[in-house]
Every structure is written in C-alpha cells, then in structure tokens.
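Write out the 3D structure for:
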Amino acid sequence: MSMRSYVSLRPRLLGEASVASLAETFRALGDTTRVRMLDALSRAELCVQDLADLLGLTQSAVSHQLRLLRAMRLVRTRRDGRLVYYALDDDHIVKLFAQGLEHVEEKSAAGTARLRAHAPGVARAFQARESDRGPKRAAPHRHSQTAEPHR
C-alpha cells in the first residue's frame, strides 16, 4: 500500500473517544452472563428476581451485571411501585445483538457447509461421532490423571 493511500484514510477514521466507547461496548458484550441477560431482556422487560430465576443466578450477581450494563447504556430501567424493571435501552442495542447473533449463526452454518463441500466423508464421520457422544461435557482439567485418551 502506498503512503498516499493510507494517509487519505486518516481523516475518515474514528476518533479516539469513539474507538474507546465502541471497544467498551464490545467488551461488555464479551461476557457470557451479560449476553444471556441481554438475550432475555431482548424478549421481555424483567425485574432482577425474574432474571435471576430465569438464568439460575443470584440476585446479587444479576444486580452487579445490570449495573455494568446500565452504565454502558445498554439497558434502561422503569420503576413500577417498588419494583424496577429492566429492558434493552433502545432499538440500536436490539439490532446490535441481533446482528451479532446472525453473524455467529451464519458463520457456524457456513463452516459446516464448507466442511461438507470439501470433505463429505469427514463431515459425515464428524457428525456421527458427535451424535454418538451425546451431549457435550466439560473438558477434563489439563493436569487431571483421569483424562480420557485422545482418539
């Protein structure tokens, strides 16, 4: 790439404040608990107790994560008497979440389709092996003496 071509891009790049804010948003989305909470809140407005029961978490853990999500302006609150209900902040958050999910599902489907196209026998063997194993288990600890041998 010539020096001239990247210099002309510089004025169009994001400013430092935008870069930092965007990175913080993606960092907030990088936690599985928060993603599960955003998934639930994308479907319904919920209070802390309902979220805790739905996700199998303590109220304290849910409150802590909601505080972070609220500070990032990803969720908003609505008070109804003594209860506080949480929902996704606006349509942008719903779209961001939906596009991320679409990307993940598309990537997964594309990977499986590529595998089938390039190596049909390997894909069938992989699928058969996965179905024989049943539900996925957590991998044994690396230093465990009871780890299953590699097949």
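The chain is about 60% helix and 10% strand.
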